[in-house]
Amino acid sequence: MTSADVEQTRKSQPAVQLATRIIFLIAGIGVSTWAPLVPYAKSRLDVSDAALGGLLLFLGLGSLIAMPLTGSLVGKQGCKRVIVCSSLIVILMLPFMATLSSPVTLALALMLFGAAIGTLDVAMNIQAVEVEKAAERTMMSGFHGFYSIGGIAGAGLVSALLWLGLSPLQAVLTMLLLLLLLLLASQRGMLTERMHQQDTPLFVVPRGWVLFLGVLCFILFLTEGAVLDWSALLLTQERKMPAAQAGLGYAVFSIAMSIGRLTGDRIVNRFSNRLVLAGGCLCAALGVLLLISVDNVTIALLSFLLIGFGAANTVPILFSAAGRQTVMPVNMAVSAMTTIGYAGILAGPALIGFVAHGFGLVTAFAAIVVLLVAVAASARLVTR
């Protein structure tokens, strides 16, 4: 952005900040609306768990294809156009995902949905970086907190609507209306400035400092993916918790992360990015260590609290660091970093599975402790 663009953004900060929060909320609601519909899709298609898992990979594949391209797209078209178009695709795909009964057509819908989600994720983080820079104060954790709120609200509302007897399509149409209203409310504060010249390549390979930030992001997203996909199994196998209660761990983690992000900006402003990144990673590492070393259900749930609070503000700090670096244009850096980080969510749980198969699940989680300590050790470099 030019200095004039930054000044204009600074003057319209209240509207711009509100719009950015709404967009993060839309992204969280959009992603989580799909989660309660998965069992209905399995029943409608009459496929095995393995086949369903294969279909769900198309969502991640769509995101991984779109994310590296979004930085250039935002640079040429501006945040507003990209955010609005990707949000509309997310919204329009939901009814198809609630009704399609062919594996092929559902796979295509999931791929388009994933591409739109990936595009929206990158574009909204680029806007958040620019808004934070213009405001000259820490705001990234709060923005990501609204994504967490959206995730809880979306899954909760759809589940409640289904419990009340609405069909999956009726529930989705209700959410569709809500998302459209939110998107309409965000329009006044969208950033429209282009960020680079038209001849910029469609994709730039991350290098140097941006690649380093991406690797750190990969580790942190891997940790979140491990908690999502493997924590329930760890609780049932190692802590003998009943399967019906094993989801409590992730619930505690999600609530702690949401609270941590909503209060994160004040915490960062008081203690600095370096201390929060280092302390957060060490707190999360301590939580994982307690989870695998103490055979007590209460301590296990406390460990998820520590992991959630510890990890809450680490990724937002990395996005802020991407906005400050000068190795690559901000839009391309955020695009690259988001792609590498998202690969951690997709590939990370599989890597945990391979390690668990050869050495046990406890060993796999112990490796996460080491990785989190390594991120903590890099805090001074990241926030210099």
UniProtKB/TrEMBL annotation:
Keyword GTP-binding (UniProt): no
In the UniProt record, which is one GO cellular component term?
A: membrane
Topology of the protein relative to the lipid bilayer: Multi-pass membrane protein
> Where does the UniProt entry say this protein principally localizes?
membrane
Q: Which UniProt keywords apply?
A: Membrane, Transmembrane, Transmembrane helix
Major facilitator superfamily (MFS) profile domain location: 16-384
Q: Which GO terms describe its molecular function?
A: transmembrane transporter activity
Pfam families of this UniProt entry?
MFS_1
Q: Could you tell me where this protein is found in the cell?
A: Membrane
Membrane-spanning intervals of the chain: 18-38, 50-70, 82-100, 106-124, 145-166, 172-191, 203-223, 243-263, 275-293, 299-321, 333-355, 361-382
Specify the domain of life of the species encoding this protein.
Bacteria
Spell out the InterPro entries in the cross-references.
Answer: MFS, MFS_dom, MFS_trans_sf, MFS_Transporter
Name this protein carries in UniProt: MFS transporter
**Which organism does this sequence originate in?**
Pantoea alhagi
